[in-house]
Amino acid sequence: MAGTDRRFRDSALPQPAIILVRPQMGENIGAAARAMLNFGLGEMRLVAPRDGWPSESARAMASRADEVLEHARLFETTEEAIADLHHVYATTARGREMAKPVVTPREAADTGVGRVRAGERVGILFGGERAGLDNDDVALARAVVQVTANPAFSSLNLAQAVLLVSYEWRLAALAAGKATTMPPAPEEAGPVAEAAQMTAFLDFLSAELDAAGFFHRIADKRPTMLRNIRAMFHRADLREQEVRTLFGVVRSLSGHRQGTRGAKGGEKGG
């Protein structure tokens, strides 16, 4: 379909961050940028693209969606790319062992648009062409987005996946824009924790579990258990105050443990 009015993103549209994690080919990045702009989206984030950035092959494939590429932000890790976001979706065609809500692109768009209109920042993760997102990436998300596709051939091209999600996002945003009122946010709940705050807490919790010897007898299972712990907390959709409370709880337990050890050591020495 031809035709464009040369405007960049649709400024009236609630904008999610489209995050391409370790994309391999510049052509697919360019095609994803074109798909985004087709539906009024303009915020692209790139995590460690294999062939480096900027990319001439991406620009050539973008077919006049250069603005998306010019404003794309580059990150070394997925955690850095989502640090300022409140709610992250992970797109994947494969089943995972993590217990996370699984939604369709339409369901993700409906809830995601509502979150952006309420003042939160939303991101959608897309994996690389060869293997998609790895389990550590998926663990950072609050929910998984899956397309109801042919189970015998369910893997989508990167740009196809971006186009499908962008299309559903636009439909949801246009439908939400017709509403005259917004559902009020709970006054006492407070804002949702950003991913950076969640990462800081989970890193702190992991260090404290190591110090307490939690993984001592199951060292071989430590990576999987940590991934599941992270997924569990991300799934909880915690508020900023709740995360601060959890920081305090873990610090208190750590201090109590160290104090008890000190007291026992003093008694022994006496």
Automatic annotation (TrEMBL):
Any Gene Ontology biological process: tRNA nucleoside ribose methylation
Protein name: rRNA methyltransferase
Domain tRNA/rRNA methyltransferase SpoU type span(s) in chain numbering: 17-167
SUPFAM superfamilies reported for this sequence: alpha/beta knot
Family designation: Belongs to the class IV-like SAM-binding methyltransferase superfamily. RNA methyltransferase TrmH family.
Keyword Nucleotide-binding: no
A single GO cellular-component term on record: cytosol
Keyword hit for Metal-binding: no
Annotated InterPro entries: Alpha/beta_knot_MTases, RNA_MeTrfase_TrmJ/LasT, SpoU_MeTrfase, tRNA_m1G_MTases_N
GO molecular function per UniProt: RNA binding; RNA methyltransferase activity
UniProt keyword list: Methyltransferase, S-adenosyl-L-methionine, Transferase
